[in-house]
Design brief:
Layout lengths: L1 H17 L15 E3 L5 E7 L7 E6 L3 E6 L5 E6 L6 E7 L3 E6 L4 E6 L5 E6 L9 E3 L12 E5 L2 E5 L6 E6 L5 E8 L5 E8 L3 E8 L5 E8 L4 E7 L4 E6 L4 E8 L2 E8 H5 L7 E2 L7 E5 L3 E7 L5 E8 L3 E2 L3 E2 L5 E8 L3 E8 L8 E6 L7 E10 L5 E9 L4 E5 L2 E6 L6 E8 L16 H15 L5 H14 L14 E7 L3 E6 L5 E6 L12 E10 L11 E8 L7 E7 L5 E5 L7 E8 L5 E6 L4 E5 L3 H10 L4 E6 L4 E11 L2 E14 L6 E7 L10 E3 L5 E3 L6 E7 L16 E8 L5 E8 L1 E10 L2 E8 L4 E11 L8 H6 L16 E10 L3 E6 L10 E6 L4 E5 L13 H6 L27 E6 L6 E6 L3 E6 L14 H31 L1
Length: about 1000
C-alpha cells in the first residue's frame, strides 16, 4: 500500500500544477469581463470615399475624440482621445492622406496619418489672446510649400506647412483689434481674404499674400448699429449678418475695393412678426438660411443684391452643410422627424424647387429628434449622384442612412455616463427552463472531444477558436434571470444625453434604453440636464410580484436655482412609471435608510433655499419621516467660500405637508486667505463592516472608529490651488481634515508641507487613502489615515468582561466627545491618478483592494496591506504572521494587478464597485469614453470554484487515482502471496 500512496500523491501534485493560476489566459478573455469602445456625440465629420483604399468618415466629438470609422459597418479604424481641456475646434483632410485637427481655441494643430491614425506632426501656435478658431485647407493642396494650411487662432493668422507643420509666416491682428470671422481662399488664387469686425461696429477685410503674409489691401466700413453673431460669406464678394437688434439683415458687398451696405428688415422678408432670428452657419453658394421661433427661411442673394425668400420650412427641420458636386453644383440635405420616421430630402442649390432625392426611414422613437446631418455623394452605375447621410440623434447615437435604409448605428451616448446604479434581475420561475437545447448528440460529443483535446494541449489553433466559441455559447452569463451568486445584474446608467440605459453585466448588451420624457427639451424645461440616479423601489422576497425601479433626478438649467424634474423608471421594462416637474430646485439628494410598506425608499431633496422636500409624497412616508426626523442630518459644502455647514430638520413649511424647513446646526469656516477646499469624500451609505475589532500582533485588539458621518476634506493654500508647478514648495500647503458631519467637530487634522492637489481620495470603514503631489520630492504620494476608538480600549480586560463591567453595550453618539487615536503613513506612488475606489463585498469579510484609475486610463488593484500605516522596516515575527509587510518608500506597481488587463478605458471618469452575493467577489464597472466590467476576488475565490475550473482534468485525476489504487492493491496482494510461498 505504500507504493499506492506514493503514486497517488505524485498524481495529485501533477494535477494541482496543471490547474490555471490567478492570471488571465487568452482563452479566458470575455468570460468574466467585457470592454466596449465608443466615441461620443459627433460634432463634425469629413468623408474620405476615394476609389482607392477603404471608405471611411473621420469625426470629432464632444468627448474630445478624433476617430476614423468604417463607412460599411461603423467600426472604429483608429481613435485618439485628447485631454479634457484640449477641445477640438475643426477637422479636415489634407493631401488625401492627412487628418488635420485644430484644438485648444486654435492653439494646437496636428496632422494624423489617415490609414492608421499615427501622428505625423504637431504645431503649437501661441496667440495674443483667446479668439475664434478657423481652419482653411486649399482645395488644390499639393506636396509643396506653395499651398500651406491657414489657421486663425489667438487673434493671429498662420500659414502652416502641410509637410512638417512648420510655421511659414504669421500675421497678428491684435494691433488692429479685429476679430476675424471668415477666411476665404479662392481656388488657384494667391490671395487669402480675412473678413471680420472691429468693436462689433466696423466691417474689415484684408487681402493677404499667401506666400509671405504681407497685407496687399485693407478695406473697412462702419455699421450704423453694430452686428449680432458672426458674419456669413455668401461668396467671395458678398456677406450677410444681423444687426445688433436682430431686426435687420445686412448685406455687405465688395466691388472694386469699395464696400457697399444694404439693409433689409426681417419683417419685410418673412412678412410677419418673427422672434429670435438667427443666421445658420451652413455655407450655400448665393443662399443663406434664416431661422426664427417658427420656421427656417432660405433666402437667395441675387446678382443685383436683392434678397428673395425661396422657401420656408418648419423649424424642426435640420439642414446640412453644402456638399460640392461636379461643375460647381452644390447639394444640401433637409431632415424632418415624423412619427417613428424621418424624412430625408437632398436638394441642389441651383434647383431649390424640387427634391433631387427623397427618402423615408423608420426610426426608433427612443432615439429622439435629429440633431445634425452630414452628407456625402457617390456615383451610381448609371453615372448619377447617389447620397449617403450621417445622422446624429438626440440620444447622441450615430447612424448611416443610404438608399432608404439604416446601414449601421452606434449607441455613442454611452460615452458620457453621468451616474450608475444596479438592479436585480427577475427570479427564474420554478419548473420553467430558459435554456434552449439546440445541439444534437453528435455535436455535444464533438464539443466534449474538442474540450478534452484542449485540456491535453493537443488542439490546433482553429480548434482552440472553436472551443472558445462553444464556451461563450454555452455560458449562462447572459441569461435574463438572477443567479445564486449575484453575478448577473442590470447596470442602470444615466448619460449626458438624458437617456437611461440598462446593460446586462454578463456581456454588456443593451437590455433596454429610454429617452426620459421629463428631461426632453421644452418650453418649460429649455436646458435639461441629468443629475443623479438612486434606487427607488427594491422589492424583497415578500413582494417579488413588483418590479424594482430607480429615481432619476434632473435639472432644467445650469444654475443651482433651476427647477428640477423627477422620474421613476421600471428597471425591468425601462418604462417611466411617473414623472414630476419642473418643480422646486434640487441641490442635494439624500437617500434615507427607511422605506414604506411598498418598499419605496424615502428620499430628501434639498433645494437652494435649504428647504427639505420628502419623496415619495405620501401620508405613510410623512409619518415615517416625522418619527425619525430627529435623527436626520445632512451637510453642505460651499467650496467657493470655504464653508462647511450642518443641518437638521426644523419644522414643516407653510402650505406644503411634504416640505420641511432646515435649521443650521454648525458651520466650519476655512479662512480664504490661507485655505481653499479642493476635495471632499464621504463613506458609501451601503458599505458593510464585518467587525469593529481588529486583532493585531501579540493578540492585542484595536477598535475601529466606525461612523457613517465622517467627511474627508482637503484644503490647499490659495497659491497652490492651480495646476502642478503653479506655486513653489514654500508657498504650497496641503491640509486634510476628518470632520464629524453631525456636530462639525474636527476629529483629525494633518498638514503636508510643499504639497498640492489635485487630491483623489477614498473613505472606507475607519480609514482614508488620498493621492496628491509632493513638490519637494517631485513625485506623487499616497497617504493613509486610520482612526481608532479609544473609548473601547477597556474591553480588552478579560476580568471586566467576565464581571460585566465593560462598555460594549454603551450607545455610541456623535454628540459625546469621541476618544480617538490615529495612525498615518505616506508612500511614493509613480502614477498620476484619475479616480480611486475600493472593493466592496456582501458581508465585508474579504480583504480590501484599492482600485486606482491611472493616467494611462487603466484600473490598478492595489492590496490595502500595502498602504497599512503600521508597516515598519523590520516587522516582528508576530507582525509577519499578522500579514504586515516590510516598509518601503514606494508602493509597488505589479503588471498582473491591472484589472483592465491590456484594455484601456479611454477618458476614465469613475469606478463603481458592486458586491456580489458571493462574499469573495466584487463586481467592478469602470466608465469614461469606454466601458469596462469585470469580476474581482481580492482574496481569491475561497468560497467557490471558478467557472473555468477544469472538471475534466479533476475527473481524469480521480479515475487515475482509483486505477492506481486498484493496480497497486493487486500487486501488493501478489507480493504477499509470493512471500507466503517462500
Amino acid at each position: 500500500m505504500a507504493m499506492a500512496i506514493k503514486l497517488s500523491l505524485l498524481l495529485l501534485v501533477i494535477s494541482c500544477s496543471l490547474i490555471p493560476t490567478f492570471s488571465l489566459f487568452e482563452d479566458q478573455v470575455g468570460f468574466m469581463d467585457w470592454h466596449q469602445r465608443y466615441i461620443g456625440k459627433v460634432k463634425d465629420a469629413v468623408f474620405h470615399t476615394q476609389k482607392a483604399g477603404r471608405k471611411r468618415v473621420v469625426v470629432s466629438t464632444e468627448e474630445n475624440v478624433i476617430a476614423s470609422l468604417d463607412l460599411r459597418r461603423g467600426e472604429i479604424f483608429w481613435r485618439h482621445v485628447l485631454g479634457a481641456t484640449d477641445v477640438i475646434d475643426k477637422i479636415d483632410i489634407a493631401l488625401g492622406k492627412y487628418v488635420i485637427t485644430l484644438s485648444s481655441e486654435g492653439s494646437i494643430l496636428r496632422a494624423w496619418n489617415l490609414p492608421d491614425g499615427q501622428m505625423v506632426w504637431e504645431s503649437f501656435l501661441s496667440g495674443s489672446k483667446s479668439s475664434k478658431a478657423l481652419l482653411t485647407i486649399p482645395a488644390n493642396l499639393k506636396l509643396d510649400l506653395d499651398s500651406p494650411i491657414f489657421v486663425y487662432g489667438g487673434t493671429c493668422l498662420y500659414a502652416i506647412s502641410s509637410i512638417d507643420g512648420e510655421i511659414l509666416w504669421k500675421k497678428d491682428f491684435i494691433n488692429e483689434g479685429m476679430d476675424v470671422h471668415q477666411l476665404i481662399l479662392s481656388e488657384g488664387s494667391n490671395v487669402i481674404h480675412a473678413v471680420g469686425v472691429f468693436d462689433l461696429s466696423e466691417f474689415n477685410t484684408y487681402e493677404i499674400d499667401v506666400k509671405n503674409g504681407g497685407v496687399l489691401k485693407h478695406v473697412r466700413k462702419s455699421f450704423p448699429g453694430g452686428i449680432y453673431g458672426n458674419i456669413l460669406s455668401i461668396s467671395s464678394e458678398k456677406f450677410v449678418a444681423l444687426d445688433a437688434t436682430r431686426s435687420i439683415v445686412l448685406l455687405i458687398s465688395i466691388t472694386d475695393g469699395q464696400i457697399s451696405l444694404q439693409q433689409t428688415h426681417v419683417s419685410d422678408l418673412i412678412h410677419g412678426v418673427s422672434l429670435n432670428p438667427l443666421i445658420l452657419p451652413s455655407k450655400l453658394s448665393g443662399i443663406f438660411s434664416l431661422t426664427t421661433d417658427t420656421f427656417i427661411a432660405f433666402i437667395k442673394v441675387t446678382h443685383e443684391g436683392k434678397l428673395e425668400v425661396m422657401e420656408k420650412v418648419d423649424k424642426t427641420v435640420v439642414v446640412s452643410d453644402a456638399l460640392a458636386l461636379s461643375d460647381g453644383e452644390q447639394a444640401f440635405a433637409l431632415v424632418q422627424h415624423g412619427d417613428s420616421k424621418i424624412h430625408l430630402s437632398v436638394r441642389l442649390v441651383h434647383d431649390m424647387s424640387s427634391n433631387h432625392l427623397k427618402e423615408t426611414v423608420k426610426m426608433d422613437h427612443e432615439r429622439g429628434f435629429v440633431h445634425k446631418i452630414f452628407i456625402n455623394n457617390y456615383v451610381r452605375t448609371d453615372r448619377s449622384h447617389g447620397f449617403r447621410a450621417l445622422i446624429v440623434m438626440e440620444d447622441h447615437s450615430l447612424l448611416l442612412l443610404q438608399q432608404g435604409e439604416i446601414v449601421w448605428s452606434r449607441d455613442d451616448g454611452l460615452a458620457s455616463v453621468i451616474d450608475v446604479t444596479t438592479s436585480e434581475l427577475p427570479v427564474e420561475k420554478v419548473g420553467v427552463s430558459v435554456a434552449k437545447v439546440e445541439d444534437s448528440l453528435f455535436e455535444w460529443l464533438k464539443g466534449h472531444m474538442l474540450k478534452l483535446k484542449g485540456t491535453l494541449m493537443l488542439a490546433t489553433p482553429d480548434e482552440i477558436a472553436i472551443i472558445q466559441k462553444i464556451k461563450l455559447q454555452s455560458s449562462e452569463k447572459s441569461k435574463m434571470t438572477r443567479d445564486h451568486n449575484g453575478f448577473r445584474r442590470l447596470l442602470i446608467v444615466l448619460t449626458k444625453s438624458r437617456k437611461l440605459f440598462a446593460l446586462h453585466s454578463g456581456d454588456g448588451h443593451i437590455v433596454w434604453s429610454t429617452l426620459l420624457q421629463s428631461l426632453r427639451q421644452s418650453d418649460e424645461c429649455p436646458n435639461p440636464t441629468g443629475l443623479k440616479l438612486h434606487p427607488w423601489q427594491i422589492p424583497h422576497h415578500h413582494a417579488l410580484d413588483k418590479n424594482p425601479s430607480v429615481l432619476v433626478v434632473g435639472r432644467c438649467g445650469l444654475s443651482l436655482s433651476s427647477p428640477s424634474t423627477l422620474s421613476v423608471v421600471d428597471t425591468y421594462t425601462g418604462k417611466e412609471a411617473r414623472n414630476v416637474g419642473p418643480g422646486h430646485s434640487t441641490v442635494q439628494v439624500i437617500p434615507l435608510p427607511f422605506s414604506d410598506s411598498s418598499e419605496q425608499q424615502l428620499h430628501l431633496l434639498i433645494d437652494d433655499e435649504n428647504r427639505v422636500h420628502l419623496y415619495p409624497r405620501s401620508r405613510e412616508a410623512v409619518e415615517i419621516f416625522q418619527r425619525e426626523s430627529q435623527n436626520v442630518y445632512w451637510y453642505d459644502v460651499e467650496a467657493e467660500v470655504g464653508i462647511l455647514r450642518g443641518y437638521g430638520v426644523k419644522r414643516r413649511c407653510d402650505g406644503d405637508e411634504y416640505c420641511f424647513e432646515a435649521r443650521n446646526l454648525w458651520s466650519v469656516v476655512f479662512p480664504s486667505e490661507s485655505e481653499k477646499i479642493i476635495s471632499t469624500v464621504s463613506r458609501k451609505g451601503n458599505e458593510v463592516v464585518h467587525t469593529q475589532a481588529k486583532v493585531i500582533a501579540d493578540e492585542d485588539v484595536m477598535y475601529k472608529y466606525i461612523s457613517k458621518n465622517i467627511l474627508f476634506v482637503a484644503t490647499v493654500s490659495p497659491k497652490a490651488s492651480g495646476p502642478i508647478g503653479s506655486a513653489t514648495p514654500d508657498e504650497s500647503l496641503l491640509v486634510v481634515h476628518l470632520v464629524d458631519t453631525i456636530t462639525g467637530r474636527i476629529l483629525h487634522r494633518m498638514s503636508h508641507l510643499g504639497s498640492q492637489g489635485p487630491v483623489h481620495a477614498v473613505l472606507s470603514e475607519n480609514w482614508v487613502v488620498y493621492h496628491y503631489f509632493n513638490l519637494r520630492a517631485h513625485r506623487y504620494e499616497m497617504s493613509v489615515i486610520e482612526i481608532y476608538d479609544q473609548s473601547r480600549a477597556e474591553n480588552k480586560d478579560v476580568l471586566k468582561l467576565i464581571v460585566g463591567k465593560h462598555n460594549l453595550t454603551t450607545p455610541v453618539s456623535s454628540y459625546s466627545r469621541p476618544e480617538v487615536s490615529t495612525k498615518s503613513q505616506s508612500y511614493f506612488f509613480t502614477h498620476s491618478v484619475k479616480a480611486i475606489s475600493v472593493t466592496s463585498t456582501a458581508k465585508g469579510i474579504t480583504s480590501k483592494h484599492l482600485l486606482i484609475g491611472t493616467i494611462a486610463d487603466q484600473v490598478l488593484a492595489l492590496d490595502k496591506r500595502f498602504v497599512d500605516p503600521r508597516r515598519s522596516l523590520n516587522p516582528t515575527q508576530a507582525e509577519k504572521e499578522e500579514g504586515l509587510l516590510p516598509l518601503t518608500d514606494t508602493l509597488p506597481i505589479i503588471p498582473q494587478s491591472y484589472v483592465t488587463h491590456a484594455f484601456k478605458v479611454e477618458g476614465l471618469r469613475g469606478i463603481e464597485t458592486i458586491p456580489a452575493k458571493l462574499e469573495s467577489t466584487t463586481l467592478v464597472f469602470a466608465y469614461g469614453v469606454d466601458l469596462f466590467f469585470t469580476r474581482l476576488a481580492p482574496s481569491r475565490t475561497y468560497d467557490s470554484l471558478t467557472e473555468d475550473f477544469n472538471y475534466a482534468l479533476l475527473l481524469l485525476t480521480i479515475v487515475a487515482l482509483v486505477v492506481a489504487i486498484f493496480v497497486t492493491w493487486v500487486l501488493s496482494e501478489r507480493k504477499d502471496l509470493q512471500e507466503k510461498w517462500r
